[in-house]
Amino acid sequence: MANLEHAEDDQNHVKMPGELPAAGSPVKPGQESCAPGGTAGAIPSFAAASELLSAPYSCLVLNNHRRHIALPPVYLNKKRTGIKEELDAELLKFSHSLHGVPLAYDNIRIATQHGDIYDDSGYVHMDIEANFIVFQPKRGQKLLGKVNKLGVSHVGCLVHDCFNASIPKPSLVSVETWRDAGPRIGTELEFKVTTLDADAAGVLLIRGQLDRTSSEPRSMQHSSLQKHIYLW
């Protein structure tokens, strides 16, 4: 996340450059903390998310994005806090403007010379730019997840330690084989995305299937299960 400096501004005319650099002048990043992994919803630092960009099947992209922000009056003299909280609240939630789910951001720039206050609302309106790392999986693409739930008919896994995915048991694999030689907690599972959806809160819902064209799934090493998989 960007580390922005506090500044006191005239409340009648909110001047952005006193707190943040104008458009084209990047904010120097501060120290970042990485949230604990292994739990859906854990938010990685920008540095940690950047390392995932080149990982196999990451479906992550780095985008420079411009957007409008309306800060509540309470942030009039602490706009740094307001901008950060506004962007933080949107992480790990589907964004139509970003065409995906923002995972982290950095390098915030003010895109307008001044903030505007309209009528008597008190909200400070401004445009900002930032670098966003966005999760943009598409149907048919492959993902890697770490198994965190086992069921009779499916497994649950975490993608990037942030996003829940559900993969059903292959129809030609028996329940016994699935139970005895199927995925295990903590193992990596390669799967193909079949369905993408988001709930009312913007939480991404992923459903996938084991790819019949791929080699044996990483977490399935039992020969009897391998024979079933090759029959799909």
Automatic annotation (TrEMBL):
Region (Disordered): 1-36
Keyword Phosphoprotein belongs to the record: yes
The keyword Transcription is assigned to this record: yes
Domain RNA polymerase Rpb7-like N-terminal: 67-122
Domain RPA43 OB, first and last residues per copy: 137-180
Chief subcellular location: nucleus
Family matches, as InterPro entries: RNA_pol_Rpb7-like_N_sf, RNAP_I_Rpa43_N, RPA43_OB, Rpb7-like, Rpb7-like_N
Biased composition (Basic and acidic residues): 1-13
Location within or outside the cell: Nucleus, Nucleolus
Keywords annotated in UniProt: DNA-directed RNA polymerase, Nucleus, Phosphoprotein, Transcription
Family: Belongs to the eukaryotic RPA43 RNA polymerase subunit family.
Function recorded in the entry: DNA-dependent RNA polymerase which catalyzes the transcription of DNA into RNA using the four ribonucleoside triphosphates as substrates.
Protein name, UniProt field: DNA-directed RNA polymerase subunit
Gene source species: Xenotaenia resolanae
